[in-house]
Design a protein that fits this description.
Keywords: Membrane, Transmembrane, Transmembrane helix. By secondary structure, the chain is of the alpha+beta class. The protein contains 1 helix and 3 strands. The protein has one domain. Helix content is 28%, strand content 51%. The protein has a 3-stranded antiparallel sheet with strand order 1-2-3, with no helix packed on it. Strand 1 and strand 2 form a beta hairpin. The longest helix is centred in the last third of the chain and has 17 residues. The chain is elongated, with a radius of gyration of 13 Å. The two termini are 23 Å apart.
Length: 61
């Protein structure tokens, strides 16, 4: 059976970042759609770091 879940995470550091994380857990794999809404312009490396931390939190904890 397939499972559909939506996780909304709000992060407040120096910036206001709202991350919409759509996870589709199916039999043969995992598809992640990430939509990031930013009120301010931030560096790409910061976005990658945040997504990496979210990946660790979701799949290894």
């Amino acid at each position: 059976m397939s499972r559909n879940s939506v996780i909304v995470i709000s992060i407040t550091l120096e910036y206001n970042i709202i991350i919409y994380l759509e996870i589709y857990d199916v039999i043969h794999g995992l598809v992640i759609n990430v939509i990031i809404k930013q009120r301010f312009d931030i560096k790409f490396n910061t976005s990658v770091l945040v997504l990496f931390i979210l990946h660790l939190c979701l799949f290894y904890l």
